[in-house]
Amino acid sequence: MATKGVEYSAVGKGGKGGFERIGHDYRRFGSLLSALYLELLGGGVYAFSVYSGKLHQLGLRQEEVQVIGTSGNLGAWLLLPAGYIFDRYGPSNGILVGSALTATGYFILYLVLTGRIETSVPMLCLGTFMAQNGGGFWDGSALPMATKNFAPDKGLIVGLLKGFWGISASVITVLYQSYFRPNISSFMLMMAIGLPAGALATLHTANVSPKADVKPLTLEERARICFFGYGLLGALVVYVSSSSIFQKDASYPILGNVLIILIAFCGVLYFPTKVPGSIGRKLGLGLTKSHELKLSDLEEEDEDKEMQDATLLPMVQVQPEPALEYAEVMRSKEFWLLFTVMVIVQGAGITLFNNVGELVEALDGESGARDSYVVLLSVGNCLGRALIGICSDLYSNVWSKATFVLFISVVMMVNMLALAIPSLNLLYLSCLVCGTTFGASSTLMPVTLADLYGQENFGKLLGTAMFAPMLGSTFFSTLLSSAMYNYYMPKDGEAHFVCKGGKCFGSTFLIMAGLCFGASLMSFYLKKITDGRNRG
């Protein structure tokens, strides 16, 4: 019989040798806290537009800046090595490798930007790749760790994690505005020291629970995650959005101080803080009949009413997970349909992420306006990741994961058409929608993979699937957008190789809209296959 927040497990070979008292609640929620901070530290790849303007000042052409940005994208999404390390050794080694890569990469960027190393595209690509690959190792350790420790509730957990990953760029942007602007080189030095230090601090609670200890969350625990986890995430979204706009023309260090305090409050998730189960029911966080409801943990007046209320709410469907070998998954058409859709949808989002600064400049926007657009992209990225995680869990009996994939494909297509209209005012809405859709795709990919193929070899599967945004970034953000930008750039060699007008990116977004239409058709086919199999 387990006491609240504590479990007892048999120790010794075959469960012999007595019982050991372990803090099971602290163990799993400690791993969740580690994962959240790792995601928050590792999402700096989306803040590239904050310092891409500095690269133009170094005399680099647009296509060279895009190559550097793509190098960072490739590093952030090269998760296959991290997946292998996680599946074989657990999360700690991946965190250590990521810390070393991040520190080295940002320090190289610092040396280049301060003139201690001669400016060269290969050196900047190396520094950017290593810095973001370190964040990729953190993501590749945090996501499988949380998915394994909270397997029955992976949609809720992955949505929260990806929300923190998505808001990371906004957090970094606000810290830059508060303490460092316009000194990019000092900012790079802070990233080289501060981010790895934070990641190393998560080693204390990073762990993978034994499979037998992974139980469905109780209604109270789900309410706690929503109330504190998603609540703090929402507070971060509101705060960084308002702070960034407030600091558009001036810097206020006090706003950075408040942000750091707000981030520290995430630590409340580590403790078994009491949250009434009634809050969970009001939020629609009911459990399925297959969940083990711990009624003693829920403050309810009537146990029969609790069971009745829980089964009347939208359910999280818990089904036996298939066990497929890695090679079998690589031969399945469902995997490659999902992969191709993500190449297009995520590639479309990355194209705007990496080019929003140049797009604002092409449309004659104010020099300080790009930070606001970066924040909107990041806020949308966060909201999409979080909301799709909750919705895919709560409405799993109504809409399949493939239905959500189809939905985001159509939304991205419409948004690409809107981006082809040269309007700075419309760009505010387009950035928010694009960020939200891109963020939703980032959460849908791992939870769909877990639903289709289970937890075995999940690290390697996720690492393989993350080649999708890498390819999308290379083909669309680097090759396509740069080619179109250079085609419309004046041939008389204007200073800093700047293109002006809506034509600079309009053709790129129209082409992406057509590709997203194709992705929508593939998503519909994926939905038809998976829905038919589930009905069967």
From TrEMBL:
It is a multi-pass membrane protein. The keyword Secreted does not apply. The lineage of its organism: Eukaryota, Viridiplantae, Chlorophyta, Chloropicophyceae, Chloropicales. It comes from Chloropicon primus. The chain crosses the membrane at residues 35-53, 92-113, 155-178, 184-204, 225-246, 252-272, 335-353, 402-421, 427-449, 461-485, 505-526. PANTHER family: RIBOSOMAL RNA-PROCESSING PROTEIN 12-LIKE CONSERVED DOMAIN-CONTAINING PROTEIN (PTHR21576:SF158), UNCHARACTERIZED NODULIN-LIKE PROTEIN (PTHR21576). One of its GO terms (cellular component) is membrane. SUPFAM superfamilies: MFS general substrate transporter. Residues 329-528 form the NFD4 C-terminal domain. This is MFS general substrate transporter. Keywords: Membrane, Transmembrane, Transmembrane helix. Gene3D superfamilies: MFS general substrate transporter like domains. It comes from the Eukaryota. Residues 31-264 form the Nodulin-like domain. It is found in: Membrane.
